[in-house]
Amino acid sequence: MDTPPIFENTLRTMKELGVPDRILEQIRSGTDIDSTTDVYAFGASDLNGDGIREIIEWRVTYAFSVGTGGQNETTGVEERFATVLTLRSGDDGKKLWRRSYDDFVIPVDTIVADGRKGILTIGGLLSMLGTSGERNLDFESLKGTNGKRFWSRSFTSIESDDVLTHISEDAPISIGLARALPGKPMDVVISLATQVSTLFTTTVAARVVVVDGKDGEPIAHPRLDVSLGWLPFSNPVGDLDGDGLDDYVVANDPGVDLGGPQEAPSVGGTIYARKGTDGSEIWTTSGLELHDFGWAGGLPNVVGGTAGEVALITPNDPQWRDFAVYLFDGTTGFLRWKKLGLGVMALGDVDRDGRIDLAMGDASISFKRHEAVFTSSVFAGSGRKIYEQKHHW
Questions:
Q1: pLDDT < 50 positions in the chain
Q2: Distance (Å, rounded) from C-alpha 1 to C-alpha 186?
Q3: Most CB atoms within 10 A, among 193, 243, 259, 355?
Q4: Are the C-beta atoms of residues 283 and 260 closer than 8 Å to each other?
Q5: Is 110 found in the same domain as 24?
Q6: Are residues 201 and 139 part of one domain?
Q7: Are residues 140 and 195 in the same domain?
């Protein structure tokens, strides 16, 4: 294969730097320089109906090569992924079905189009970390018994650079599963962000799309405009309005938002609760101190009421020295309390008052004192501390 002079000069320089001839020949021929294959196995549900849980074998191969594309181009690195998913019997390990992809693909054990347990695959996640160009986020719903495809759906995002400006259109920033629409299958809730970045400012708008688990049809929800540098994640949190379907919340810091057809006017950090079916407003709570992002999750009913609670985790200051946990009433959006912590989860009834209690964790590190303190706390839903433990390292 004839190689351009610029490319040969690069190879000559690499040889002078001590790169082995074998590697140089692989670069010249465009063959793989290196590749690695990792194999993982994890338990799945009973996907074939024999009463025994199956095993998903997840084989991922990564390879890269170095080459050139023309007379005026220098060397470049091409990366490739391949994934092979194999479902094996939990009884004897025999192969039940297998599917292959020319991409890095993640399998998710969930309820699919036929209302039974199956596999949802998500591909294209790693391509979102690249530079300019067009990328696809791919979903595929597979039947659990034989791996046949029910439906597939792709979402295209475009990133471009123009001197000092970087533009991202419909880049996915969060993906969640919820029963947002009528029917048995789990649906997919996606946040797609549009971002314009310059040397000094970043503006973002986001829209939520719910993909129907029955047929893969996307349902567009209202657009959300956010402030400079904000990441608007949409997080499923369970049923907040009592219609039997899951809803989601989006945290935002719009500065001053005059409101629109979907939500009330708000000032400062804001959390919107929206219906999973169409994105219409359930409640809006504003006036919160939020920094950069807010990640929400649903909790069981820990205080008393008709719905569970909503927890929101966000940096407590612009430098991320601490994180804060907010707890909201899931029915009304009323802010119950705010405490410092890295996360929160529901426990059982620790203090035996008939209500579920919450566990929170926090950490502080002092490089000056060469010390780290990890704190584990248990709170009642009302915010009353039940006990606390500190661990010093």
A1: 1-4, 70-75, 130-131, 256, 258
A2: 52
A3: 193
A4: no
A5: no
A6: no
A7: no
- Two structure tokens written together for 259: 């409101």
Per-residue pLDDT tens digits for 244-287: 999 999 988 755 454 555 555 555 688 999 999 999 999 999 88
- Given a contact cutoff of 8 angstroms between Cβ atoms, the answer to whether 34 and 63 are in contact is yes
Residues 6+ apart with CB under 8 A from 364: 372, 373, 375
Separation of alpha carbons 4 and 61, rounded Å: 30
- 203: tokens are 């503006």
> Distance from CA of residue 202 to its chain's centroid?
21
Model confidence pLDDT, tens digit, residues 74-106: 445 567 789 999 999 988 999 999 999 999 899
CATH of the domain at 221: 2.130.10.130
* Residue 61 structure tokens: 């191969």
Measure the CA dihedral 221/226/232/235, to 10°: -50
Same domain, 38 and 128: yes
Number of domains in the chain: 4
As a whole number of angstroms, the distance between CA 202 and CA 89 comes to 50
pLDDT of residue 195: 79
Output the pTM of the full model: 0.81
> At which of 108, 131, 157 does a domain end?
157
Q: Given 105, 127, 157, which residue is the final one in a domain?
A: 157
Judge contact between 126 and 114, C-beta under 8 A.
no
Whole-angstrom distance, CA of residue 211 vs CA of residue 219:
6
Q: So what's the pLDDT on residue 49?
A: 85
Closest residue by Cα to residue 302 from 310, 292, 294: 310
Name the residue range of residue 6's domain. Answer: 1-29
